[in-house]
Specification:
The complex is a heterodimer of chains A (202) and B (198).
Chain A: H1 3-31, H2 35-39, E1 48-51, E2 56-58, H3 59-71, E3 85-97, E4 103-118, E5 121-138, E6 141-156
Parallel strand pairs in A: 1-6
Antiparallel strand pairs in A: 1-2, 3-4, 4-5, 5-6
Chain B: H1 3-31, H2 35-39, E1 48-51, E2 56-58, H3 59-72, E3 80-83, E4 86-92, E5 98-113, E6 116-133, E7 136-148
The chains are: A alpha+beta (202), B alpha+beta (198).
Chain lengths: 202, 198
């Protein structure tokens, strides 16, 4: 192996690590409602954001609309009381960088413990989901170009996914499109894999 | 450092990464009961597969029998798994041909137990081995140790497991280590202490 080939291989390992950190950093910001920091993790040429049943938001403008206008309530003082909490664990990342080293795809699992109001009640929930995301390298840095978070279940802490798989429905009025794939448990839906089987190559 | 040494170090990092992906892909296929894809992740020279109390299955043939037995166990109604492959510690042997890995698996499940549809928590520990053949990493040995399997409603202290995992009829040998909570059993570590070397 010559130096150039070796350099390419090291670059790939660095890319994967940086993307893994990007995804986990997203989670650590999300947990604390740090929407400006989240928006800055997205490319200016971002394709779209789609989160559970909230619908599809196109472009960097859409990124701002969903995180800042919708989740962040358009700025001002933090409008969440302290008892409200999201802990979104970013688990099981499988990241594949394209041969040209400019884009990448990643699948992740998420396990959440959250507390938020549902209707008139303050609730505590378990939640699970899958990401299938796209990343892009611009000016030597990895950024999100597409984020799609699929919800498996969202259930009261006390009740469980079998008896109560999905608490409430929340399409956001500002979305560009309704959700393209919102099929929570027990639909049996398989979130499509971005990768081929590593051995069988299918 | 010369080029050859550097190459060896890069290969080691690539190997660790590929093995981590292998384990996570196993999880993603297993969750959707895609057992054909799961079996294809095993080497032709597979040592054994042992899952909980289901017994030891030897060789690639054994791996096929084991996962087919799981398929056969599929009851009418809802079966649902989300098994999170977490916290992998992967160590590649100095010759770069084999590796070991320890992982945790928190999981959500629902399936029929004794005629009733139940929702359960499950937790366990993998103690696995991997082998590199023709430039690709495969499972050589898979051993998943059950820690607990309680109903969602009761929790692991009150009901450590809803039932005991019995040996599959097609197993080659009974389980070598089935010691769920609260046995106090420590799943053996494949690695040495990184500081003391013991």
């Amino acid at each position: 192996m010559n130096l150039e080939e070796l350099e390419r291989q090291v670059q790939l390992q660095e890319d994967i690590q940086e993307i893994e950190h990007l995804q986990r950093t997203y989670g650590y910001y999300f947990d604390n409602n740090m929407w400006p920091e989240i928006i800055d993790l997205f490319s200016d040429n971002a394709e779209s954001v789609e989160i559970v049943d909230h619908g599809v938001f196109y472009g960097k403008k859409g990124v701002r609309r969903i995180y800042w206008d919708m989740f962040g309530g358009g700025g001002g003082p933090r409008h969440y009381p302290n008892w409200m909490q999201f802990i979104v664990m970013q688990i099981g990342g499988v990241v594949n960088v394209s041969p040209d080293g400019k884009t990448a795809l990643g699948r992740w699992q998420t396990w959440l413990m959250e507390s938020m109001p549902f209707g008139a009640y303050n609730r505590q929930e378990w939640r699970h989901g899958y990401y299938e995301n796209k990343y892009v390298k611009e000016d030597g840095k990895w950024k999100f170009s597409l984020l799609h978070w699929n919800n498996t279940f969202c259930t009261p802490f006390e009740v469980g996914w079998l008896k109560y798989p999905q608490m409430g429905w929340m399409p956001l009025p500002d979305a560009d499109l309704p959700p393209t794939a919102f099929h929570p448990y027990p639909s049996g839906y398989h979130v499509p894999y971005h990768y081929k089987h590593p051995i069988a190559s299918e | 450092m010369n080029l050859e040494e550097l190459e060896k170090q890069v290969t080691l990092l690539e190997d660790v990464h590929e093995i981590e992906n292998l384990q996570k892909l196993y999880g993603y296929y297993f969750d959707y009961t895609m057992y054909t894809e799961v079996i294809d992740l095993f080497s032709e020279n597979t040592d054994s597969v042992e899952v909980s109390g289901h017994g030891v299955f030897r060789g690639k043939k054994g791996a096929k029998r084991m996962y087919n037995a799981m398929l056969g166990r599929k009851h009418p109604g809802l079966t649902f798994f989300e098994i999170m492959q977490s916290q992998g510690v992967v160590e590649v042997a100095p010759d770069g041909k084999t590796a070991t890995g320890r992982w945790y698996t928190p999981s959500f499940e629902s399936r029929p137990v004794g005629g009733t549809q139940r929702q359960t928590w499950q937790f366990g520990v993998y103690d696995n081995e991997y082998i590199k053949e023709n430039g690709k990493w495969y499972f050589k040995k898979l051993h998943w140790n059950l820690t607990f399997w309680p109903s969602f409603e009761s929790g692991f202290v009150k009901v450590p497991r809803l039932s005991d995992d019995i040996s599959f009829l097609s197993a080659d040998a009974p389980a070598t280590a089935y010691h769920p909570y609260p046995s106090g059993y420590h799943v053996p570590y494949p690695f040495k202490h990184p500081v003391t070397g013991e």
